[in-house]
């Protein structure tokens, strides 16, 4: 029986290379971690389809509000905002080296092996390839995007 993915429980989606399969996505939830045999881009598109949002318009709207063009946070709703994390060394050209982390699942950001690491609420530790400064900036942009969402969708 195929395992049903609960999109609202996803803490992080990270690219992983599986031998004899290729690029896959490791999905972390608070209870478990499993590998889906789809690329990170496909998983993000499936997430956006599930929540009925446009990734293109998300990037245009929140990118212009935040004054950034790359690594724009993906805002699903007021409770779910994903930010980019540089998760691994690219293996080949056009390889997906970025993963996505739900900012509400981040417990702590700390230095490990010269790069930033993320301690999730579930206890998972995600090692990144970026500096603490750039990771904290991404998380801050995610929080600002969340506030922008709340402001735009304020009930009157």
Would you write up a description of this structure?
With 156 residues, the chain is an alpha+beta fold. Helix content is 29%, strand content 32%. The chain has three helices and nine strands, in the order βββααββββββα. A six-stranded antiparallel sheet has the order 3-2-1-6-5-4, sandwiched between helices. A three-stranded antiparallel sheet has the order 7-8-9, with helices on one face. The longest helix is centred in the C-terminal third of the chain and has 21 residues, at 132-152. It is globular. The mean pLDDT is 89.
Summarize the structure.
The protein is an alpha+beta fold and 156 residues long.
Strands, total number? 9
Number of helices: 3
Q: What number is the mean pLDDT?
A: 89
Biggest sheet statistics: 6 strands, antiparallel
Question: What is the overall shape?
Answer: globular
Report, as a whole number of angstroms, the end-to-end distance: 45 Å
Taken as a percent bin, the fraction of beta residues is: 25-35%
Helical residue percent? 25-40%
Strand order of the largest sheet: 3-2-1-6-5-4
Low-confidence stretches: none
Q: What's the gyration radius in Å?
A: 15 Å
What letter string, H or E per element, gives the SSE order? EEEHHEEEEEEH
Q: What topology does this entry show?
A:
Layout: E1 10-18, E2 22-29, E3 33-36, H1 40-51, H2 55-66, E4 74-75, E5 81-86, E6 98-102, E7 106-112, E8 115-120, E9 125-127, H3 132-152
Antiparallel strand pairs: 1-2, 1-6, 2-3, 4-5, 5-6, 7-8, 8-9
Features:
single chain, 156 residues, alpha+beta, 6-stranded antiparallel β-sheet, 3-stranded antiparallel β-sheet, 32% strand, globular
